[in-house]
Amino acid sequence: MKLIIAVVNDKDAIPLMEDLVESNFQVTKLASTGGFLREGNTTLLIGLEDEAVEQVREILRKNCKSRRKTVTPVAPVGNTMDVSMSYPTEVMVGGATVFVVKVEKWEKI
Ligand code: 2BA
Predict the structure, then answer these.
(1) 64 lines ligand 1 (CB under 6 A)
(2) Ligand 1: which atom is nearest the Cα of residue 35?
(3) pLDDT value at position 102?
């Protein structure tokens, strides 16, 4: 038994969940926030049998796209705290960040 924890882009979450449910997987959607961009993303919890992990990884690959995102952190300039300057940089976000975790016990009470 495994638990897949997948952090995905909000835009990919709905079609991805539809695909998972159509394929008879159970999924829980959590609203989450990335620590670096401080933007909303979606975390999915998928409990499944070991032999189904590859099928879910394939569904994730099919539905989750990488996207370029421009970040503009604000850096202080000189010694003054109130003057700042922005340095836009580009980061590549996703497709999906996927953790596959061993589940010791799974029960519905
Ligand atoms: P964020 O933390 O908002 O990160 C968004 C993207 O910014 C990352 O994309 C990566 O390209 C870049 N990035 C993150 N930290 C960085 C840093 N210290 N310096 C430079 N660039 C950095 P992804 O790697 O595709 O991650 C997408 C989202 O997945 C993350 O959003 C975070 O919510 C989650 N995530 C990724 N790795 C994780 C991990 N090891 N543990 C927990 N969550 C993770």
Answers:
(1) no
(2) 2
(3) 98
